[in-house]
Description:
alpha/beta, globular
Amino acid sequence: MVSLSIVIPIYNDAECVKPCVNRLVQVSENLVGEDYEIIFSVDPSSDNTYELIIEEHDKNNKVKAILLSRRFGQPQATIAALTCSNAHYTVVIDADLQDPPELIYELFQKAKKDMMSFMPKEGQEKEKLF
């Protein structure tokens, strides 16, 4: 399990892939060192979005991709990536970076400070939500 997972639903955003990865890697490494993953959930695109994500994965195996079997839309793409997240903390962000990734610093610190707990089912470990 990693400390931080960043989930990005993406569709026809090839021009956003490299800037998005660069900024998210910088933020992640400043926060948790190498203890992170970046998960793109790709609705099948008519551009080369998926191929560019694979190129980024080849450079950095912390970058991962889920390719959906058909166009499901942003909510389902997000849920698919959340399902695959393997982290103590998970953040969802759009690939176009309308929300600056640097806000993750504040979210991460707030989550660690003001985290809510819930009771697990019998036989499960106690989990934390924010």
